[in-house]
Amino acid sequence: MHPTKIEPTAQKTHNDWQTIRSLLPYLMEFKWRVVIALTLLVMSKLANVSVPLVLKEIVDTLGKPQAQLAVPVFMVIGYGVLRLSSTVFGELRDAVFAKATQRAIRRVALEVFGHLHSLSLRFHLDRQTGGVSRDIERGTRGIGFLLNFMLFNILPTLLEITLVAVILFSKYDVWFTVITFVTLVIYIVFTLFITEWRMVVRRSMNDLDTKANSRAIDSLLNYETVKYFGNEQYEADRYDENMRHWEVAAVRNSESLAYLNAGQSFIVAIGITALMLLAASQVVTGKMTLGDLVLVNVFMIQLYMPLHFLGFVYREIRNSLADMEKMFSLLHEHREIADDPSALPLSVGRAEVLFENISFSYAPDRQILYDVSFSIPQGQTVAVVGASGAGKSTLSRLLYRFYDVQQGRILINGQDIRQVTQSSLRAAIGIVPQDTVLFNDTIYYNIAYGRPTASHAEIIQAAQTAHIHEFVTSLPLGYQSMVGERGLKLSGGEKQRVAIARAILKNPAILIFDEASSALDSKSEKAIQAELHSIAQNRTTLIIAHRLSTVVDADQILVMDKGAIIERGSHKQLLERDGTYSQMWNLQQQEDKVYLEGFSLQK
pLDDT for 121-147, tens place per residue? Predict the structure, then answer.
């Protein structure tokens, strides 16, 4: 197991206070609830501290000869009322504060979720879904614990300790206060020291838990691949390797907790014993009554529970802060792609697209595009062809502004896409990707995702245009059929037709077809190609294709190789040039001919 990196204590403390301060704005939404809850907190503790005082009077009164029955009865009733008040005020406090806590959890979770969607594609290609979801789950749970226990356990415990110390100092020998404070100081120092040591183990547990969960989610998402290669045991061993390290950390965590609890109990027992010896000796000498002895004993018992709980709460708050660290670090994750402060909505209008001297690299040592320039006039279709890795799909990612170019600029109607809002830019573009991933929901939901406000009739029309309506209606549940995780219940062609329907429903000014018919059979491909051609008539269209037969009608065809455009022109012009495009065309024609001959022989 790798050693856990330990931050300097000052830095950790700063981060902890920063985390706590970041929660305050969420509480201010319900500041009156917070004020009422704090008032109830004080009333609850005042009632709790008053209980031993009344009990002392009851004992002293009953110890006197010829005590009148009315006096202790009155006091006993008051004793009961105070005990009930302490509990009732505490429960009312929790009820009043519940809405503030749950709203804070909801708002923070929503903010993290929204921020994750605002981060760049680069972040999402690097992250592991299982790990991120576990970090958010633990972090939101930690918020609830932090708000409730820090505000309603640490503060009231400190308040009760202060009240008890004041009573002991004002009514009894100074040694009672000295012993109480010495016990508290030793207890707190011991708790802080051991808890900080335990936090190293806790962070290690969190990291290992996140890693194991990420491995498990990744394995389950790739269930078919695991089955294809018969690697079930390999995946189980890989998962168990992480869980084995987690087990070691968990055992260390439990052992250290036992040491902490034992040490705390020992310190408190010594303190209570010293106080009781002092009180007993003063009762014998007549300086204190039996009621005073009972008072000191009950005070110590009342302090022991919250004091012991204070240790538990501090540990859990530190644990919660550790749990929240990663979630809040997501909020501080840099937005690589962000709207310019002066960004305006994109004016779509004629929807003319211009790539001007574009150079781009995903990493400094991996340049993808070299000085690429071309335009897509309004209503025309430009196709990009070339070998895998030539940089074709990168063009669509740049047009969507998933990344910003290092050199050059991309213009839509003369507007640099870096100077317009991302939401308006992406609202103007529709895409049918090569690898269609669907939500684990119904077919209807996945088509409607293109424009959630669309009417039922519009959704059906989009499905008909994409030639998927007949297939859907043949299913037992029709449009309410579930597509499964990532759409795995549908074939590749069916998923792609859903993606086409979704793009049609969006009705964008600019269309991108990224190998849009690659998963379709020949018959379906021809039908879809005719529809795509019809859809693209009045739209600015970028087609990224491998099969050249799908782009012969394009107004202009760009041939890319190693990140640069090496040929451009219409299908006819490129064939006449007898260059790379012509060679690719002839090769594909031969492959198609061999395929058809083989198919005929099989029949």
Answer: 666 655 555 556 666 777 777 777 777
Q: Can you tell me which residue has the tokens 């992406």?
A: 426
Q: Specify the residue for token string 């547990």.
A: 205
CA 122 vs. chain centroid, Å, equals 17
In the chain, which segments carry CATH 3.40.50.300? 351-428+510-570, 436-507
| Sequence-ordered list of residues with C-beta below 8 angstroms from that of 181, at least 6 positions apart, any chain | 165
Write down the CATH superfamily of domain 15-331: ABC transporter type 1, transmembrane domain (1.20.1560.10)
- Counting other chains too, the contacts that 107-112 makes at CB distance below 8 Å and 24 or more residues apart are 107/26, 108/23, 108/26, 108/139, 108/140, 108/143, 108/327, 109/136, 109/140, 111/331, 112/136, 112/139, 112/327, 112/330, 112/331
Over residues 483-542, the pLDDT tens digits come to: 877 677 887 778 888 888 888 888 888 988 887 665 555 666 666 677 677 777 778 999
The answer to whether 188 touches 453, Cβ cutoff 8 Å, is no
Residue 4 has pLDDT above 60, yes or no: no
Average of per-residue pLDDT across 582-591: 84
* DSSP letter (8 states) at residue 190: H
Query: What distance in Å separates the CA atoms of residue 264 and residue 459, rounded to the nearest whole number?
Result: 66
pTM of the model: 0.62
Tell me the two tokens of residue 450.
């293109």
pLDDT recorded at residue 440: 84
Element spanning 381, H or E: strand 381-386
For the sheet with 366-376, list strands across it: 366-376, 353-363, 407-412, 415-416
Provide CATH 1.20.1560.10 ranges for the chain: 15-331
**Predicted confidence (pLDDT) at residue 332 exceeds the cutoff of 80:** no
Bridge-based pairing state of the strands 540-545 and 381-386:
parallel
Q: How are beta strands 366-376 and 353-363 bridged, if at all?
A: antiparallel
Tell me which CATH homologous superfamily contains domain 351-428+510-570.
P-loop containing nucleotide triphosphate hydrolases (3.40.50.300)
> CA torsion angle for 458, 462, 467, 471 (degrees, to 10)?
-60
**Residue 558 confidence (pLDDT):** 92
More confident residue, 578 or 61: 578
436-507 fold: Rossmann fold (3.40.50)
Task: Beginning with the edge strand found earlier in the chain, give each strand of the sheet holding 510-514 in spatial order.
Answer: 429-432, 510-514, 540-545, 381-386, 556-561, 564-569
Bigger pLDDT: 551 or 365? 551
- pLDDT the model gives residue 384: 92
Cα-based angle 157, 154, 258 (whole degrees, multiple of 5): 95
What is the percent of the chain with per-residue pLDDT over 70, rounded to a whole number?
80
Q: Which residues of 208-242 are buried (b: 16+ CB within 10 A; e: fewer)?
A: bbbbbbbbbbebeeeeeebeeeeeeeebeebbeeb
Rounded Cα distance, 178 and 278, in Å: 12
Structural element, H or E, at residue 567 = strand 564-569
pLDDT at 112 over 50: yes
Q: Which two tokens stand for residue 269?
A: 């027992």
Give the pair of three-digit tokens for residue 543. Answer: 């087609």
State yes or no: pLDDT of 389 exceeds 80. Answer: no
Q: Which of 328-337, 503-512, 563-572 has the lowest mean pLDDT?
A: 328-337
